[in-house]
Design brief:
Layout lengths: L2 H9 L11 H23 L5 H5 L2 H24 L13 H22 L8 H21 L8 H23 L5 H31 L1
Length: 213
């Protein structure tokens, strides 16, 4: 059999394969979707009354940028790890931003706890409702976009998706909800982010497999 004939027979019933979107483009698309969703939440809830004043403070600017950078880096890492030829080290991409974000809140938390004691911790279930309420759907959106990773790296992709969604939701929350102390921000923002990541880790792989089926 001639080579050309063999190639023709082998390829005649092959369905065309849709190319995977490049990771950076996919991450930008997801971030645009996340921005639209969070913006809708901000419009519904309304901006916090002291937003202009808070945005003039350097530590507030740094914390917001660090949270946004954490979310963006986690999204980029997730889309890279969804491809079989990418290094596992992509999972470390959001780590420096997350450490910077948490450490910035941590210093403020320690200072306020020393000054005010236990009252600095406070309670704010509204924070958890906002971050989980927006974080879970955004996580599912990213899992849908990375469903081809169901048989590659479901674990890292799912927890990075949860981190990206929760960090972006935390930025949105900072625009609408006022917290009296850095300790409250650390506990309720950070705790809610961990809850979204835990939910993603527990059920994300199963969701990926269901979406890929």
């Amino acid at each position: 059999m001639q080579t050309d004939e063999l190639i023709r027979r082998l390829s005649q019933d092959v369905a065309p394969v849709r190319r995977v979107t490049p990771p950076m483009r996919a991450a930008l698309g997801w971030l645009a979707l996340a921005a639209a969703v969070i913006a809708a939440g901000v419009l519904i809830s309304g901006l916090r009354h002291d937003l202009e004043h808070r945005l003039m403070l350097m530590h507030e600017q740094v914390n917001l940028l660090a949270a946004l950078a954490t979310g963006a880096a986690a999204a980029v890492a997730a889309f890279h790890l969804a491809l079989p030829d990418r290094s596992d080290r992509w999972a470390l991409l959001p780590l420096p931003f997350a450490i910077f974000w948490i450490s910035g809140l941590g210093w403020g938390c320690i200072a306020e706890f020393i000054e005010r004691g236990w009252p600095a911790l406070g309670i704010s279930f509204a924070c958890m409702r906002f971050i989980i309420g927006f974080g879970v759907p955004l996580t599912l959106g990213m899992l849908w976009m990375t469903r081809h990773a169901a048989r590659i790296r479901p674990g890292p992709v799912t927890w990075l998706a949860g981190l990206a969604a929760a960090a972006v939701a935390s930025v949105g929350l900072s625009l609408v909800h006022h917290l009296e102390a850095a300790a409250m921000v650390l506990i309720w923002h950070g705790g809610s982010v961990l809850v979204v990541m835990a939910l993603s880790r527990l059920w994300g792989a199963r969701a990926l497999r269901a979406m890929a089926a």
